[in-house]
User: Which sequence fits this backbone?
């Protein structure tokens, strides 16, 4: 096992045992009894969810938080819900995932060059974490960035992830540039604690955004293509 894999394993253990936010603990643990719960309630993960992916990842994908009946059920980010279906199908088309499906921990999904994580690790009520809950989780993303020393592109999915990356000090814009308002398709030069990166943004692949057409597969494919182009540019420079 590589040092990075060992460090990520230790971090995953620390994340999955966190009980810092009482509101989130209560919500994530109550989800299996909700009328919308899926399958056997005893099979819910119902804990904070670690990030996952390639230990040598060059692309870091940052979402909002686990879905109550998605990652909070399966124990893997973006796995077992419509958002994940959209995300991993697109990543498969882009050559960043070995398959398009994401149903469970044991489904064989593997990511290439990519690590998927979130600003908040517990499923929040109404998908709306508080600022204090976001700040409490910030330590975990700090540690992920320190371990994933090959990251050259950060993809923020949605305004919440975009704001969290700056508010919690994970990213700073190069040259002291003022941060623009979130929009789909931004590309910004930034720095992290471990080096320079390009920040790329997309609307979150939520069921609402996809069903209303705010985010289409073609739009997201284009964002991933641009992210990969930045990775190739970073390797050649």
Assistant:
């Amino acid at each position: 096992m590589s040092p990075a894999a060992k460090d990520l394993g230790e971090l995953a253990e620390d994340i999955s045992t966190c009980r810092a936010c009482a509101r989130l603990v209560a919500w994530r643990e109550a989800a299996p009894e909700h009328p919308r719960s899926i399958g056997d309630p005893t099979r819910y993960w119902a804990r904070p969810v670690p990030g996952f992916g390639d230990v040598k990842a060059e692309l870091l994908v940052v979402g909002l938080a686990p879905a109550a009946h998605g990652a909070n059920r399966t124990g893997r980010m973006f796995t077992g819900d419509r958002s994940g279906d959209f995300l991993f199908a697109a990543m498969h088309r882009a050559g960043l995932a070995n398959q398009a499906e994401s149903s469970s921990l044991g489904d064989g999904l593997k990511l290439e060059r990519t690590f998927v994580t979130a600003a908040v690790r517990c499923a929040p009520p109404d998908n709306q974490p508080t600022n204090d809950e976001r700040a409490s989780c910030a330590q975990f993303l700090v540690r992920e960035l320190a371990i994933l020393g090959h990251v050259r592109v950060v993809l923020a999915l949605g305004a919440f992830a975009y704001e969290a990356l700056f508010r919690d000090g994970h990213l700073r814009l190069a040259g002291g540039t003022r941060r623009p308002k979130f929009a789909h398709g931004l590309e910004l030069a930034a720095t992290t604690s471990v080096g320079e990166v390009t920040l790329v943004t997309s609307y979150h692949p939520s069921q609402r955004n996809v069903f209303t057409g705010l985010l289409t597969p073609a739009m997201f494919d284009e964002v991933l293509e641009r992210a990969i182009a930045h990775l190739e540019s970073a390797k050649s420079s």
User: Anything to note?
Assistant: The chain has a mean pLDDT of 95.
